[in-house]
Write a structure and sequence with these properties.
9 helices, single chain, alpha/beta, binds uracil, 193 residues
């Protein structure tokens, strides 16, 4: 599937029951050739209304985290502008946790997004995103600090910005995760030069 077909397929998806309660699907946004791909969990209330990922409070913190490492979601070249997607394209009612069946049905869309973007790094944010991508039930605390792979793309795990809003002391750990991801991208660049 190319981008327009994928976008249309997601917009009309009825593969799980979340299609009944969504306002709209939240496909993802950013540079289609980005070096960095950010993968969150699922749209919340604001994202469901606006059709964009990470536009609420957690999104503001994500923007600040990106700014701290010279990245942005605004229009910029692929080395600076990230691509942002979620493991689920529809909002779970009342922001409940994603269900395994929903993650399974939705994953092919994310797989195709990763194949099309071919990022140099995936930053996976939050327990559900991380566990779904890595097929793991380990907590974030045990998965962060090393480089995993998803579809052969290096993947670094970090805390979800919504979690960081509730647990500010863990921001220092999230900063370490961003620095690790940055090192991975830099090493990859040097390798290709
Ligand atoms: N949390 C997520 O994981 N994704 C969003 O798009 C919004 C909040």
């Amino acid at each position: 599937m190319d981008w327009p077909t994928l976008r249309d397929t997601v917009a009309s998806c009825r593969a799980c029951a979340l299609c009944e309660s969504r306002t709209q699907t939240v496909f993802g946004c950013g540079n289609a050739q980005a070096d960095w791909m950010i993968v969150g969990e699922a749209p919340g209330e604001k994202e469901d209304l606006l059709g964009e990922p990470f536009v609420g409070k957690a999104g503001h913190l994500l923007d600040a985290m990106l700014r701290a490492i010279d990245l942005t979601r605004q229009s910029a070249p692929p080395a600076q502008q990230v691509y942002i997607a979620n493991t689920l394209k529809c909002r779970p009612p009342a922001n409940r946790n994603p269900m395994p069946i929903e993650l399974t049905r939705c994953e092919p869309y994310l797989v195709r997004q990763v194949e099309l973007v071919r990022p140099r790094i995936i930053l996976a944010m939050g327990r559900f995103a991380v566990q779904a991508l890595l097929r793991s039930s380990e907590p974030i605390g045990r998965l962060r600090g090393r480089v995993h792979r998803y579809l052969d793309v290096p993947l670094v795990v970090t805390y979800h910005p919504a979690y960081l809003l509730r647990n500010p002391p863990d921001k220092a750990r999230a900063w370490d995760d961003l620095c690790l991801a940055k090192r991975v991208v830099k090493a990859h660049r040097v390798e290709r030069e």
